[in-house]
Amino acid sequence: MQVTQSYSQKLEPISLVDEGKIKRIRGLVTSAKVSPQLTTRVVDKLREIFNDYIPDVWINVDHYKKGQCGEQPGYAVSLTAETTTGTILTKDFNFGNKKEFILPEDLGQRVAYSLLDEVFTGGCVDSCNQPTALLMMALSQGDNASQLKVGSRITQQSIIMMRLIDQFWKVKFKIEECQDDLFEQDDDLSDSDDAEDKNDEEMGEDEKSEGIMAED
Fold first, then answer.
1. Cβ(4)–Cβ(132) under 8 Å?
2. Helix, strand, coil percent values for the chain (each to nearest 5)
3. Which of these, 42, 18, 4, lies nearest to 149 by C-alpha position?
4. Cβ distance 33 to 66 under 8 Å?
5. How far apart are CA 210 and CA 202, in angstroms?
6. Where are the domains of the chain?
7. 201 pLDDT above the threshold of 50
8. What's the whole-number mean pLDDT along residues 47-64?
9. Options 3.30.360.20, 3.40.350.10, 3.40.50.1820, 3.40.50.620; which CATH number does 22-121 get?
10. Model confidence over 6-17: pLDDT tens digits?
């Protein structure tokens, strides 16, 4: 397979501050030199968890037999969650070490909860792709500064990337807290004003998420 793509002469500034709501979840479970029943058990666990969250879930299975793959047996899971604004959050896991064998259901549960954790933290980019997004923001050209909402968790890799960008290109990032209605409670579901006040106190600082804006 050969892919040809023309290069971009410049990167335009971006403004990604609305992550939207999750509308579909897609996934791929691949296995090599293991029983196909293992991948089926992983898929069943994934659907069991995701169907309680959203009905539009589709998981494909790709199995490789002996002679179609390498010497190392194992299986892997790749998941994507797409939002109403076009944001895509991803999570990947692989397993191939017999010494650390875990049940297929445990692997499916770990992957599913990891993707839901990315959704819960909010943001327009997942934690794995934060450094790449920050690099593209620093290389963009234009009069306006790029804006990116990364949710409530900035990874250590992203912090290192911002330091390297400052060191090589002298581009600094401005980090601000932005209000988010993710944890806001619907008034119609509250029994009384006292219950609402109690919920607000328990939420505390969790009602805030991080927003990043690049400045030249």
1. no
2. 40, 30, 35
3. 18
4. yes
5. 19
6. 22-121, 127-215
7. no
8. 94
9. 3.30.360.20
10. 888 889 999 999
Q: DSSP letters of 91-125? A: EEEEE--GGG---HHHHHHHHHHHHHHHHHH--SS
Contact 36, 63 (CB under 8 A): yes
User: Which helix (H) or strand (E) covers residue 16, if one does?
Assistant: strand 15-16
How long, in residues, is the chain?
216
Rounded CA gap, 41 and 108, in Å? 8
The Cα–Cα gap between 203 and 184 comes to 9
* CA pair distance 22, 157, nearest whole angstrom: 26
Identity (one letter) of the amino acid at 143?
Answer: D
Cβ proximity of 38 and 63 under 8 Å? no
CA distance 148 to 146: 7
Q: Which residue has the tokens 């400045």?
A: 215
For residue 191, is pLDDT > 70? no
Terminal Cα distance for the chain, rounded: 40
Tell me if residue 18 falls in helix, strand or coil. coil
Using the 8-state DSSP alphabet, how is residue 140 labeled?
A: B
